[in-house]
């Protein structure tokens, strides 16, 4: 299976947004907001266009990965710029074929060459622990509200990149989307059924609940 990885182009935006919608629909909640998130991310000053990649098969976009600049506010008072990964998306019919891994590996190598310190994300431990990430708690990194979270993962891009960065991870504000605007944006797409209580939704709720005081 020949998969091409290339930078996303402006003309790709509608197709990519549909890929993101298909990948996340009913996965973590009824419907999804991720396609609206990627739509507004691209216009943020924190967006990193050099790391905006699509996976293409037979002239069809089947996956996408994007990054924003965020920060770790260390307990020492110092601030460290890091990358936030996500959303990363693969069309359901192309999942479990290694496309997500290729997108992560490719952009991680580029990010390292660009001089970035580390990548952080909130996601499924069973997946990201097999992709070179470790629990952020092992490096003393907490959420913005000073909690340890099982969903929070980190990948240092060089040895000891975050050795002095014990502190709070502050995601870029773009991630705090306006749900009403996301619902309005979704009206541009073909209607899809909302499903409540799927196994992946229940799994997501359990992971999000795994938070502890630092």
Automatic annotation (TrEMBL):
**GO function terms (MF aspect):** acyltransferase activity, transferring groups other than amino-acyl groups
Q: Which residues span the membrane?
A: none
Matching entries from CDD domains are given as:
NAT_SF
Q: Which residues form the N-acetyltransferase domain?
A: 1-190
> Which InterPro entries does the entry link to?
Acyl_CoA_acyltransferase, GNAT_dom
Q: Which SUPFAM superfamilies match?
A: Acyl-CoA N-acyltransferases (Nat)
| Database matches in Pfam families | Acetyltransf_1
What protein name applies here? N-acetyltransferase domain-containing protein
């Amino acid at each position: 299976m020949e998969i091409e990885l290339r930078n996303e182009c402006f003309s790709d935006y509608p197709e990519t947004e549909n890929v993101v919608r298909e990948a996340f629909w009913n996965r973590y909640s009824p419907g999804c907001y991720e396609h609206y998130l990627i739509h507004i991310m691209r216009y943020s000053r924190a967006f990193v266009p050099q790391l905006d990649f699509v996976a293409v098969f037979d002239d069809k976009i089947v996956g996408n990965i994007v990054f924003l600049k965020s920060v770790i506010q260390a307990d020492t008072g110092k601030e460290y710029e890091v990358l936030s990964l996500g959303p990363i998306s693969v069309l359901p019919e192309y999942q479990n074929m290694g496309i997500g891994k290729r997108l992560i590996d490719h952009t991680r190598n580029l990010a390292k060459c660009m001089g970035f310190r580390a990548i952080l994300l909130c996601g499924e431990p069973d997946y990201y622990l097999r992709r070179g990430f470790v629990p952020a708690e092992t490096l003393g990194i907490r959420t913005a509200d000073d909690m340890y979270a099982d969903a929070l993962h980190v990948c240092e891009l060089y040895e000891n990149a975050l050795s002095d960065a014990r502190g709070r991870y502050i995601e870029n504000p773009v991630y705090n989307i306006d749900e009403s605007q996301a619902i309005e944006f979704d009206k541009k797409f073909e209607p899809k059924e909302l499903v409540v209580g799927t196994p992946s939704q229940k799994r997501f709720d359990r992971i999000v609940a795994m938070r502890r005081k630092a």
